[in-house]
Amino acid sequence: MSLVESKMSARTRRQKAAVAAAQSDESETPVSNGTAQKSPKRSKSATAGKEENVYLFAPNLIGYLRVVLAIASLYYMPLHPRTCSLLYSVSCLLDALDGYAARYFSQSTTFGAVLDMVTDRCTTACLLVFLSSAWPRWAIIFQGLIALDMASHYMHMYATLSMGGSSQSHKKVEASRSWILYQYYHSRTVLFICCALNEAFFIGLYLLSFSSPTLSPSLLQPVPGSPAQPAPTGLFESPWSAGALELARANKIDSFWPWVITGVSAPVMALKQIINVVQLVKASNWLVEGDIANRKASLRGKRH
Prior knowledge:
mainly alpha, disordered N terminus, CDP_ALCOHOL_P_TRANSF_CS, CDP-diacylglycerol-inositol 3-phosphatidyltransferase activity, lipid metabolism, phospholipid metabolism, transmembrane helix
């Protein structure tokens, strides 16, 4: 072989080796155990361009709208029952839409799930606080419902995250752990009906506080401002006191439909409270199981 042919052969081998190395670099990807591997170089702008803004996901935008509507309903709650009920109801109904959007756009996130639950708990609690002021005699019942609702869902969420992992949804409950919770969370229809009618019951009570003399005997008093009844400002030092507000809202709406809404939704509301109790007990048991397992593992570690 001549010297020229030898040089050309060596050059050819080097070129082939370079091409093979480039192809190998392009095909290699990071492995699951975290070992560093060669990968194609990507510009920082290309990587940054693919970062997602979870705050602007469609279901989370719906969640923000729910918060705005809930706050608006609270503003109208003392004196405008129709407006308040409409805003509050739309906020609750959007609870089903954000879940659909999360599945449709594949945008289910932990932030969205927590935002959804926090919004539900806070809006219900605010409505129950109003009912406590409307009927002080039954305030302890409404206060108990607030405590049960928040404790049950907080314990369930915390148990799911700590025992099931951060990627575990609080709605994924095994039938072996709780049959009733499995049925409640497994069917979207059951979940929607229970939540919707539970809220409908409290909305019905809210409307009855404006319209039912049976529940609020003070509504039988003459309309404020009439000759037989002076204006609230003449009776109360503050026009925003509880007594002045009760007089101002007297006899604004008819009580027929509020009674219908309350009566139809009452059984489902009672079922929802039973589910809350079961959820609280099951979440507590799950956390205790984890504590026992951790203590056993700790004792075994000390022995060794």
